[in-house]
Amino acid sequence: MEVALHWYGSGEERIEGFANSRRTPDGGTHVEGFRDGVAAAVNAYARQRRLLTPADPDLGADWIGEGLTAVVSVKLDRPEFQGATNGRLGGAVVRVRVGQAVRDRLGAWLEQDPDRASALIGRIVRGTSRDRAGCAGAL
Length: 139
Prior knowledge:
Strand order of the largest sheet: 1-4-2-3
Distance between the termini: 44 Å
Strand content: 15-25%
Order of helices and strands: EEEHHEEEHH
Helix content: 40-55%
């Protein structure tokens, strides 16, 4: 598995998935696992550093993904492609393994660079607060 990721200032999430060097335009379990792992690492770090209070809900993958650009590539002995065009990768084990690896590695990076980690999580938390306030005002 190889993953490259970067958060930019834009509000758009862009994740490209590949399985055995073949683009998976419809995503799949490797992309879902990536998103699971990112959300788990960011939430664990934010709670540990008290950037989220116990009363705060977990940050959702959609909020965390704002401004995220990533490439997720996996190599598999027997890939399980799905869909009419075989553009989606299947396999529950892939999701779990990618998610755990991303959580571990991203969690380690967050711990090693607390200034950048706090800035990143602060931006995400401010974005969710703004979104929540906007939604509450619209009701």
